[in-house]
Amino acid sequence: MFLCIKEHDYLINYPYLPIMRKIKNLFLLACSLFCLSSVMLAQNAKPFVIPELKEWKGGDGQFVPTASSRIVCASGEAELLRVAQAFAADYEEMFGVRMPVMVGKAAAGDFVFQLKADKKMPKEGYDMRITDRVLVSAPETSGVFWATRTLLQMTEQSDSRSLAKGSMRDFPSYAVRGFMLDVARKFFTIDFLRDYVKFMAYYKMNTFQIHLNDNGFKQYFEHDWNKTYAAFRLECDTYPGLTAEDGFYTKQEFIDLQILAENNYVEIIPEIDAPAHALAFAHYKPEIGSQTYGMDHLELGNPETYKFMDGLFKEYLEGENPVFRGKRVNIGTDEYSNKDKQVVEQFRAFTDHYIKYVEQFGKQACVWGALTHAKGDTPVKVDNVVMNIWHNPYAQPRDMKELGYKMISIPDGLTYIVPQAGYYYDYLNCQYLYENWTPAVIANEVFEENDPYVLGGMFAVWNDHVGNGISMQDVHHRVFPAMQALAVKMWTGKDAKLPYADFNQKRMALSEAPGVNILGRIGEGKEMVYEAAVVTPGMQTPHREVGYDYTVSFDIEGADEAKGTELFRSRDAVFYLADPISGMLGYARDGYLYTFGYRVKPGKANIAIEGDNQATRLYIDGKLVEELGKRTLYFNEGGKDKMYQSRTLVFPLEQAGQFSSRISNLKVYNYKKH
Description:
The chain is α/β, with parallel strands linked by helices. The strands form nine sheets. Strands 8-9-12-15-16-17-18-22 form an eight-stranded parallel β-barrel, surrounded by four helices. A seven-stranded mixed sheet has the order 1-7-5-6-4-2-3, covered by helices on one side.
């Protein structure tokens, strides 16, 4: 409302009229500015999502879905409809509401998806306008899919499932936004990998490299290559017996994993690593192992090496429906000795051979950067080859660019996690990376943003220390904050505006993905999140497990329990009332069995288990009995070599076992009470 000053002769004397007009005009201007600022203040702030939106223009008010809201596709393209159905399923998974999917004319309250040409929009980008409906436009279905991740993240931060009105234009700074997982030296179940596909997709990370073979360090295995742990994780018909017995993926499981990834716009890059890191192959066929450089190196001068590796790659690459479905395959090729020029030339020839070999099957070859370390005369194919730049002395990025290699930035000193190894990172320095890193920063080399030779970035988990007790959930506890922070840096790049302190505070409000909860988070804030007056044998709870930090307590009237009697189990862990070996209270996960020095005996007691990412603790009647924390394992004469072993537990709750004791007053807290 504006105040009007009327100029009547009986109110304003003629001599003061010009002054009063100026006052009037200034007053009107001030009122206008006030009203304009009020309108601007009413505009919705940029929604918090990960990665941060590139462009946002706030509107006024909220869009609130109704019982009649639908997902409407503007056209009937099969892939667009599939993305719409996936969004409907994810929305139901997260919020308990199933919206119908249809093709046709939209109305107020609907979510509308359309494909629309836009020459100015980068690949994977999308436009979204939120008014009385939500309109998503993208030149490709990948952009529509990424828009649905944005919508789910926005929705889960609102109790009413409302969305801030406004418009956004969002697109990635880098084409490759990746993560690499070493499943060779530590096995991860196929269920875990399937969850990771969804987890990565939720944060618009689109490249998942899976490192399928490797070996431990021989100093932890009596300095004997024959005793040193090594594993190849894929079912193999060409070489029966090559596949690791302690954990592997069938061909069909791996194919299905890739199909799931494709449906979530994540590319899986399988990696078979040679000629170093290849002890699993030398264990199977000892004559191809190097007597000079160690059995984890293949003998490059032996024709049998090529025959073996040709046969291995061929099994997964040949045919109309190969096991390796994607467009890229990583062939390894790093960390071989360069002490002898002849061996350097052989290494370069090996690299060139397998680049061309996988190309024969229609694949693009990816390699680990090693050609500065292995500088020589033998030509190595450059065109259409992708190089992971991980350690600049092994492959100088400027030199690799000059040669013509397209690069993925994965600098070891910034982006390598090696759990509890004492080198590289246990947890990444997420604040430093968030504030200082983009894929253009490759260690001490800094390229221009959007340099066409830098395809994007990755970070990695290497499980170097075989036997260190780290669980799958422990790895995820390290990856989760890194995935969130680096998703911002690979999508939004240097344009991220939100200060790290705000980002770090807000990020925990987001899920891992629809239906994914590897962290085992239950509830919000510090609270008791589940209780049961009585736990009966075989009963199920609503929760698969509870993650760090937690306390699980219960009263017990003890009975004699047979060895192997379970209290609770989940898909990944078992908690025993009597462990299978000694009959003590204990737990098993990831192939490890840990026991407390306590045996359930007749009589009443209160038992509490407390866990965090450092230790698992047992309390009896409120008193600490034992802490199973990180311990040091010593190897070789005088304990020259050592390894840290973790004894953590994400507590299983999914299903009770068959026990004779009476269990009552079960209480689960999402914090440590003691």
